[in-house]
Design a protein that fits this description.
Two copies of one chain form a homodimer.
Chain A lengths: L2 H14 L6 H8 L2 H9 L9 H22 L5 H11 L2 H10 L10 H5 L6 H19 L1 H7 L1 H12 L7 H13 L4 E8 L6 E8 L2 E8 L2 H20 L1
Antiparallel strand pairs in A: 1-2, 2-3
Helix pairs in contact in A: 2-8, 4-5, 4-8, 4-10, 5-10, 6-8, 8-9, 11-12
């Protein structure tokens, strides 16, 4: 690691109030694929992107939210808990938590992404937050994740449960489709563009086989979300 | 609990090699909603369906599969792990595990579901398996889940990773269609039969407007899955 990278890690660990036994885990959690790609092109071999950690962290976050809901909302049936979980684990919510804990200032980004406003992008922020959850879990078990990240999740869970925030356009579209059209929206990846490290995805959302909208995004998830948001707008227009 | 219910629990705990500190957790994990519904109509208040446990267990299973993949497939990028996880956590795979551990013989089902062949239904089997994972977790932490259920999951993960089993027929068909025919399969609901509580759905899958197969199922999802499976078989026959 370079000196300024190490400095960044030390700053962030202070802010978190947690010292990693294996700081390399934290380093990897903070490395966006655009940074890993650039650094590897420069010949460095010690830089891995946070994508594999994000994969594990996604499951860690889901599990902790599910456990919190199961234990603290004993009167809520499965359907209600599922909805709250979908919103609390959404990119939007996780991106907010990333900002709450100052993670956005510590992510390592490639130059292109930095110029492209990547530090504000929800997919990048939420991905890094999931990667951080995995890094904490691998470093110290569930305990540090519960102490450091879960309190933030709980704050959003409570607001979502109280109906004070709506995060999830996909869920909103699904509910509308079921209620009004007795069917479920279908998301189909229709196109991919660009080189591997700057891919764009285009997802079409359909209702009963009919295309409603196409969303684009830097991940399939993002593209789906955008498609759902556009579809909701379109359905509203059709109603009016 | 009734005597025959307790007997059933004892039998199953012997089979699992695990004694629950709180057998009520196991009882709830085994209670399908159809059974809980019938028993509550008879005035019993101690019977809860396994749906809330299924919600938590879904996240427990996902997390354990993700952790296994992260630790044991260090060379696999996120996309590959995601595909394997989707297949390993699919209803099909979890229903097979439910049969492997004999869970199918111990589920409490309502009379209607029993007559309707519910004991063979994948959604019921996989739901009960997830509920069992949650019950084990709540009773003894991750340890019993890892000892009792994870080895079964690993067996399927290995077969999926080696390409020996395909669980997610819809994804497999989509990939094949994109690769070979530069198009996406289209699913069309062509018919519904039967009364509301015992509906059958028929979904046709088409490639470039041409019908490939029709699948039936007790839900649209099931019917689509069956259609995809049949379509894959048909495409293979056409190749041979």
């Amino acid at each position: 690691m370079r000196e300024e990278e190490i400095k960044n890690l030390i700053d962030f660990m202070k802010q978190l109030g947690y010292n990693f036994c294996d700081p390399k885990l934290l380093f990897t959690a903070l490395c966006h694929s655009s940074y890993a790609h650039e650094e590897r092109q420069r010949g460095r071999k010690d830089v891995e992107s946070n994508e594999r950690l994000e994969f594990l962290g996604d499951a860690v976050v889901d599990f902790l939210i599910a456990e919190h809901l199961y234990k603290n909302y004993p009167q809520s049936p499965e359907g209600v808990m599922s909805k709250i979980k979908a919103a609390a684990a959404s990119e939007d919510a996780l991106a907010l938590i990333a900002k709450d804990i100052g993670l956005n200032r510590h992510i390592f980004l490639g130059h292109g992404e930095e110029l492209n406003n990547g530090r504000e992008r929800e997919s990048i922020l939420s991905g890094a937050l999931e990667a951080l959850a995995a890094a904490l879990y691998l470093d110290g078990g569930m305990k540090p994740v519960k102490e450091i990240l879960v309190p933030h999740m709980v704050r959003y869970i409570e607001q979502i449960a109280a109906g004070n925030i709506v995060f999830d356009h996909k869920t909103a579209l699904q509910e509308l489709a079921q209620e009004k059209y007795k069917t479920l929206p279908e998301y189909v990846l229709v196109r991919e563009e660009g080189p591997a490290h700057m891919k764009k995805f285009f997802v079409e959302v359909r209702l009963k086989g009919r295309s409603l909208a196409t969303g684009e995004g830097s991940s399939i998830k993002d593209a789906e979300k955008n498609a759902a948001r556009l579809a909701l707008e379109r359905l509203k227009e059709m109603e009016d």
